[in-house]
Amino acid sequence: MRALIGLKPEEAFEGCKTLLSIQPHPDDTDIGAGGLVARLSSQGCRVIYVTTTDGGGGTTDPSISWEELSRIRKGEQQAAAKILGVSELIWLEYRDSELRPSLELRNRLITLIRRYRPDVVLTVDPWLPYEAHPDHIATGLAASEAFFFSNLTNINREDLEKGLQPYTPKYIAYYWSKNPNLYIDISDLIDVKKRAMSAHKSQFTPEAIELLVKYDEMLGSRAGYRYAEAFKILNQLALHINVAAEML
Q1: In contact, 222 and 179? CB cutoff 8 Å
Q2: CB atoms within 10 A of CB 244
Q3: Which pLDDT belongs to residue 1?
Q4: Domain coordinates of the chain in residue numbers?
């Protein structure tokens, strides 16, 4: 089936010149794919982060206001992005915890795909079983729809008037997926990833960072590496009436 639809997960990031990462919150991509981002940026890939929400809801401390936390988290993301070599940060400013799939969100992401013309779109897997966070589900779904529809001229047609041409990235890559089909060895980058995750001080204690590192160690054990990140790589043909997509 992979051969029939031209899917080659092992080649997804080879020669990647532009990666567009669409994440629900500051820190998501750093946790799920920080090693990959560090690797690609060191190879000259342009990495752009699109963060859909403002991050203002992620605290149990009643003394921190929504606006203050949002400002703090953006600063933390900027610090982490510098460590990983991220080229650009884009904020869509939807309210944390309240995001729902919408045509507005999908069309904003289509415009970004057409503007930056990435080789790969990176995002969270919206079909993760038992995922309770609406921001993750909405972001992953909207990113998937944007990836799927970005080459159709009559979808978000106003882009044509802005000089943005229809375009389809080669692949969409999901982290935090139940059925990954690609493991990336990040053993030589785990310390860089740890520093990037540690920049998110409002979210993670040192103990939490060690737990996240243990998760990468578990993924590595599945693939014969010390530490790894796992991804579900799909192309456009896998995202519509493909009953084998889960197994690809």
Answers
A1: no
A2: 11
A3: 87
A4: 2-238
